Amino acid sequence: MELIQAIRGTRDILPDEVGYWQWVESIARTILCKANYLEIRTPIFEQTSLFERGIGEATDVVGKEMYTFSDRGDRSITLRPEGTAGVVRSYIENKLHVGGVQRLWYTGPMFRYERPQAGRQRQFHQLGVEVLGSNNPRADVEVIAIATDILQALGLKNLRLDLNSVGDLEDRGRYRQALIDYLTPYKDELDADSQDRLSRNPLRILDSKDRRTQEITQNAPSIIDYLGEKSRTHFDKVQQLLAGLGISYSLNPRLVRGLDYYTHTAFEIISDDLGAQATVCGGGRYDGLVQELGGPDTPAIGWAMGLERLILLLQQLQNLPQSELDFYIVSRGELAESQATILAQKLRNAEFSVEVDLSGSAFGKQFKRADRSGAVACLVLGDAEAENQTVNLKWLKTGEQNQFSQSDLLTQTEEIRSKIQASRSSGTTMSQ
Ligand code: ATP
Ligand code: MG
Predict the structure, then answer these.
(1) Which CATH code is given to the segment(s) 327-426?
(2) pTM of the prediction?
(3) What letter would DSSP give residue 322?
(4) Helix axes 137-153, 15-34, angle to 10 degrees
(5) Domain(s) of CATH 3.40.50.800: residues in the chain
(6) How far apart are CA 260 and CA 256, in angstroms?
(7) Tens digit of pLDDT for each residue in 267-299?
C-alpha cells in the first residue's frame, strides 16, 4: 500500500524539536506581556478579497503564492498568507479603534505556494505584532525594540537591522516615476519578473535576486532623496530614538518590502547564518491599510518573524532550553511499580514534573533512560524500598544518593525543590 505522506512544503514538528518552539513562544510572550501587547487570534482562512485588497494584487504573495479555493458554497476562500490583513479586518469589524491605540500580537501558521527549501515552506509560522492608532515614530521604535529584545533573549547573534523609509504615497509616486524613468532604457536586460513589474510594481525590482538586475539597480535613484519633509522628519526621529536605545542599524535604500500598503519606516532583521533565506523578521509602517480595508483612517506599524528560520538558527547554536523534568522514576517489581505510579501522581500534585519508566526492564536500562531524560534526579523503587515504603533519590549530576521514607519525601518538598533548582543552575545538563 502506498504510504500517505505530508504535503510538499509542510513539516511535522516532532517532539525533539518542539521544545525550541515552546521556548521561543514563551520568551516572546513574556517580552510582549511586559510591554502590554495583547494576543489576538484570527481565523486561518478569510475571504480572498481581503488579501487582494489588503496585500495588493501586484505583489508576489497575491499574484502567485496564495492557496485559494472555492468552498462548497462557491465562495472564494484563501488560507492566510500573512497575519496583518486578518488582524486589520478584525480591528475594523470589532471596532477596536474605539479603545484608542491597540497593541496586538499573534502567532500561527501561514500558507504560501512557494518552492520549498530550507527556511521556506508552504505552511510556515509567524509571530507578529501590530500597533494600530499611532503615527508617532516612538511606536516604530517600540516595535523594533521588542523584536530585538526577543532575538537577544534567545541568545541569537550575528543579526543586523536594515532600515529604510518608503515615504508616504506622494513621495512614493514621485519616486516610482523616477525609478521607471531610470529602468526603462534597461528594460530588455532585466529578468522576466522585473520586466513585468516595471509598470505594475517597479519598487519590487529593487529586491530582485537576479544578478544582472541587481547590477542595474545598483545605480538607481534612492528613495531617501524623494522623501518629503514630513517623511524626512519621521525618519530622522526614528533613527534618533534607535540610537538612544543603543540599537544599531544600517540604512538600506533598497529595502522596499513586498507589500503595497507599507509607508514610512521599513525594516528587516537579517541573519548572516541562514544562507539564502536570511530575513528572520520583516516589518514596517502601513498607514494606508486600515482605510483601504474600509476602516477609519488609522496609522499602524507592525512586524512578523518567520519562526522556522528562528528555530534553524537556534538549532545551529545548540541553544537548547534546559529540560524541565525534575524526576525520572525507576521501579521494578509489582508492588514497587504500583507505589511508583502513586508517588508520581502525588509529586505532580506538589508541582514537580515527573516521568515514570513504564518498561519493567532491568534497572540498568531504566537508569540509562533516566540519564537521557534530562531529569535532575532519579527516584528508585525496588522490592526492598516497596516493602519499607521508602524511596531512593539519586541526583543524576553528582551521583549522590539519599534514602527517604515516601511520606517524608512528600513533606520535604520545599527543601527538595530548592536542591533541584540549585542542581539545574549549577551546570550544563541539557535535554538530548
Ligand atoms: P522572503 O523575501 O524571504 O520571501 P517575504 O518578504 O515574503 O520574505 P514577509 O511577508 O515579510 O516575507 O514575512 C515575514 C517573515 O516571514 C519573513 O522574513 C520570513 O522570516 C518568514 N517567511 C516568509 N515566507 C516564508 C516561507 N514561505 N517559509 C518560511 N518563512 C517565511
Ligand atoms: Mg516571499
Answers:
(1) 3.40.50.800
(2) 0.85
(3) P
(4) 140
(5) 327-426
(6) 9
(7) 999 998 888 889 999 999 999 899 999 999 999
Q: How does pLDDT run across 173-225, given as a tens digit for each residue?
A: 899 999 999 999 999 999 998 998 898 889 889 988 899 999 999 999 999 99
Q: How far is CA 124 from CA 83, 120, 191, 316, in A?
A: 12, 8, 28, 19
Contacts of 34 (CB under 8 A, 6+ apart): none
Q: What single letter denotes the amino acid at residue 358?
A: L
Q: Is the CB of 126 under 6 A from ligand 1?
A: yes
Give whole-number Cα distances, 365 to 119, 330, 370, 372, in Å: 38, 10, 9, 11
Among 279, 305, 310, 312, residue to substitute to test ligand 1 (most atoms within 8 Å of Cβ): 279
Closest CA to 291 of 135, 78, 75, 164: 135
With cut-offs at 50, 70 and 90, classify the pLDDT of residue 432. very low
Q: Which CATH number fits domain 15-168+228-317: 3.30.930.10, 3.40.630.30, 1.20.58.2140, 3.40.50.1820?
A: 3.30.930.10
Least confident span in 59-63, 142-146, 289-293: 59-63
Record the cell numbers describing residue 50, joined without a space: 481581503
Q: Is 114 in the pocket of ligand 1 (CB under 6 A)?
A: yes
Beta bridge partners of 92: none
pLDDT digits over 70-89, tens only? Answer: 999 999 999 999 999 999 99
